[in-house]
Amino acid sequence: MLSVHASPRFSPVRHWLPPWGLHACVRAVMWRSTVGMGLTESQRWGHYPAGPVCTISYLLQGSIDVLAAGVGHDAFSARQPVPRMSVMGPHSLPRSAFYGPEAEGVMLILYPDAFWAMTGVPPQTLGDQIVDAHSVLPPALLAVCKRLFEAGDVDLGVQRLFADLLPLWQQRAQDLPEHNGQPREWGQNLAPWMEALAMRAAATGWGRSLRQSERRIKQWTGWSLRKLQGSVRGESAFFAVMEAMLEERLDWAQIALDNGFSDQSHFIRETRRITGFSPEALRHGFIHEEAFWVYRAWAQLAGFQTAPDIVASSHFGLRP
Question: Going from the N-terminus, what domains does the chain have, and what CATH number goes with each?
Fold first, then answer.
């Protein structure tokens, strides 16, 4: 399945969903290009939320520098250049990046337990880090990713990636405790993946107490069950905001209540923790700012309408 969303206002972003046999491994592949956009310096920022997933990225053109996780997007903060081919581990804090005048890249998004199975690298060792892919990826996976990244046509490259990745995943999945490698339709959100992970942890090994299950989850993903639940709750709230914006019924207090937050203040704190922004600042950036492209792509991945459609229906005044 392929989705495209581009407008005269925002850079083009494309995403590909994995085939049936890779649903437990790959969340999505994303491509973005700012080539020919003529972006201003303020438009060259990108804001990434905290989350448990791991990514393998390749910069086809241009450059990208990242700020330390959790420091915001202060133009005077120290920056670190990102390797052309990089791996990003699970992030407990949001992170901002600054792109060169023209940049194009591809990103493979993996679930953390699948990343561990495919690489042998525990996700917790890469927490809040971005490293050179050559330092952590095994030769077989590195070769598969290079064929995607170096393909002349990105669409053809992604299809080739899925074809090459499937046998690697099937082989590695057999080694996962209580994982029979059978594909499952999870949809494009974290909740079903986390539920399956919890069930697998509970069914693994001799000790099946809650504490032992939680230890296994942290070993497999680098995050505690509680932390994963917070990320799932935050994602559900984000999708609820998308639905409310489309239906012109945005009510922060109701969204907080419907998604398991104790109150609106709790919802605002968690939104800041995951994204670095208040709910209202995030909504405004989603609609008006190039730098929030990740969130527009995230919404597209879940099947929501494109940013121009939402802008057209979001003329009302909103405050958290």
Answer: 2-180 (2.60.120.10), 226-312 (no CATH)
Residue closest to 306 by CA, chosen among 289, 286, 282:
286
Q: Give the tens place of pLDDT for each residue, 218-255.
A: 989 999 999 999 999 888 888 888 888 777 778 899 99
Nearest alpha-carbon partner for 298 in 87, 49, 130, 82: 49
Which phi and psi angles does 301 have, rounded to 5°?
Answer: -60, -35
First to last CA, the chain: 35
Whether the Cβ atoms of residue 112 and residue 90 lie closer than 8 Å to each other:
yes
- Please give the distance of CA 261 from its chain centroid, rounded to a whole number: 22
The count of residues in the chain is 320
With tokens 């996976």, the residue in question is 141
pTM equals: 0.88
DSSP class of 305: P
- DSSP string over 1-45: -EEEEEETTEEEEEEEPPPGGGTTTEEEEEEEE-TT----GGGGE
- Give the integer Cα–Cα distance in Å for 243 and 274: 20
Q: Which residue, among 3, 7, 27, 33, has the nearest Cα to 15 in the 3D structure?
A: 3
Instruction: Give the DSSP H or E segment for 59.
Output: strand 54-61
Distance CA 288, CA 242 (A): 15
Cα separation, 53 vs 110, in Å, equals: 6
Quick check: helix, strand or coil at residue 106?
Answer: strand
Going from the C-alpha of 167 to that of each of 64, 144, 159, the distances in angstroms are 32, 11, 14
Helix (H, G, I), strand (E, B) or coil at 265: helix
